[in-house]
Write a structure and sequence with these properties.
PPR_rpt; PPR/CCM1_RNA-binding; 0% strand; mainly alpha; 337 residues; TPR-like_helical_dom_sf; repeat
Length: 337
């Protein structure tokens, strides 16, 4: 009786230890997969192959993590092959995350034929697409220059009872702006506001950039004011098109006023400095251009060749050769440090 109890005790601990090791392995495995990089994907698949030897059996979360890792490094066809394995050989079926991950991967590479085909396969399997699925497809069609298909997918989204979110609507606004229908994009913007769908930074960016390209600077300026009133943290790429527009139109004072507002919220980047230097040069405001140049260097931004040539040329034309020489000397010193 005593021997029986002793054997059972150790058997119990052996099984428990094996189970605990399995849990630890699975936890570390999933953590590894979540940090997949291009050079680690093969290691991830080796871990995947070893799971069963630790008493761990891959579930749909495991496969979805692998799919995500493959798509992150643009191995979309390989991800699609893995998805087929889940469909044919696993005891469980792919879910909406599985399909959407691969569809999104195809959309990011503008492979819309493959994305659409997989979407149809998803629907046939009985898996209901969600807002993320439709948003990926809408954005993919927009980026591929197929606005008609993007609008068609939006209609299909509504038929499936999915409410378009800020990502979907921003993509459609972007699509309208890309084909020159800025007013249609503004109509969607107003629709978002009416439905209390908060705009994102990228919604503002898309519309502001499109308005500037259409030389509708005052409307772009008004959107910047709305952005300032919101809780969104702005970035330089939203301000730059408006600053550039005002510089090119010769309204340097308005451009400078926007820069003052911008500096309250975010830092100027290399493009901002370049726009301002060239803009001030074109208006003959050389002292200010020189000041911006040194401010640019102080911010750790290196001017490109076009900026340097423009500034030097304008300084020479303005009868300021010593300043032009000093600019080149400063650049040489900075490159040497």
């Amino acid at each position: 009786m005593g021997n029986y109890l002793t054997v059972s005790f150790w058997d119990f601990w052996f099984v428990l230890l094996h189970w605990l090791i399995g849990l630890m392995f699975q936890g570390n495995y999933l953590l590894k997969l979540n940090a997949i990089r291009a050079g680690e994907i093969n290691e991830a698949f080796e871990l995947f192959s070893d799971m069963r030897s630790f008493g761990c059996f891959p579930d749909i979360v495991t496969y979805n993590t692998l799919l995500h890792g493959l798509c992150r490094i643009d191995e979309i066809d390989r991800a699609h092959d893995l998805l087929k394995v889940v469909c044919l050989k696993c005891e469980f079926a792919p879910n909406v995350v599985s399909y959407t991950t691969v569809i999104s991967g195809y959309c990011r590479l503008y492979k819309m034929k493959e994305a659409s085909s997989l979407f149809d396969e998803m629907v046939r399997s009985g898996t209901k697409p969600n807002a993320f699925t439709f948003s990926a497809l809408v954005d993919g069609f927009v980026k591929a220059g197929d606005m008609a298909s993007a609008l068609g997918m939006h209609k299909k989204m509504l038929l499936y009872g999915c409410s378009p979110n800020v990502v979907t609507l921003t993509s459609l606004i972007d699509g309208y702006c890309r084909v020159g229908l800025v007013n249609h994009g503004l109509d969607l913007w107003h629709e978002m506001n009416a439905r209390n769908i908060p705009a994102s930074l990228y919604t503002f960016s898309v519309l502001i950039s499109a308005l500037c390209k259409s030389n509708r600077l005052q409307e772009a300026r008004d959107l910047l004011r709305l952005l300032k009133q919101s809780n969104i943290v702005p970035k330089s790429f939203v301000y730059n098109p408006v600053i550039d527009g005002y510089c090119k139109s010769g309204n340097i004072d308005e451009a400078n006023a926007i820069v003052v507002e911008m500096e309250e919220k975010c830092k100027l980047d290399k493009l901002t400095f370049t726009i301002l230097i060239i803009g001030h040069c074109m208006k003959g405001r050389m002292v200010e251009a020189i000041g911006i140049f040194y401010k640019m260097l102080g911010a750790g931004c290196s001017p490109d060749e076009i900026t340097i040539r423009t500034l030097s040329s304008c300084l020479l034309k303005a009868g300021m050769p010593s300043e032009a020489a000093r600019i080149k000397e400063t650049l040489f010193e900075n490159q040497g440090t």
